[in-house]
């Protein structure tokens, strides 16, 4: 059985489709409310953030 060559021809790549709604401006991220906790994850410091105006379900690291 032959091995597959791990190089792709540039012609085979597809361009990303354009934005379906031109001129659309995305909403800015919500302001953080409180930092609830901190942890080391894969040797990086992460903070548990409570977002202002959102419930506890939306807390994120």
UniProtKB/TrEMBL annotation:
Pfam families: Chromo. It comes from the Eukaryota. InterPro entries: Chromo-like_dom_sf, Chromo/chromo_shadow_dom, Chromo_domain. GO terms for biological process: chromatin remodeling. Residues 35-61 form the Chromo domain. PROSITE patterns: CHROMO_2. This is Chromo domain-containing protein.
């Amino acid at each position: 059985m032959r091995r597959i060559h791990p190089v792709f021809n540039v012609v085979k790549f597809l361009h990303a489709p354009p934005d379906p709604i031109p001129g659309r401006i995305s909403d800015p991220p919500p302001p953080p409310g409180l930092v609830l906790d901190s942890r080391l994850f894969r040797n990086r410091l992460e903070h548990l953030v409570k977002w202002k105006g959102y419930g506890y379900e939306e807390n994120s690291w």
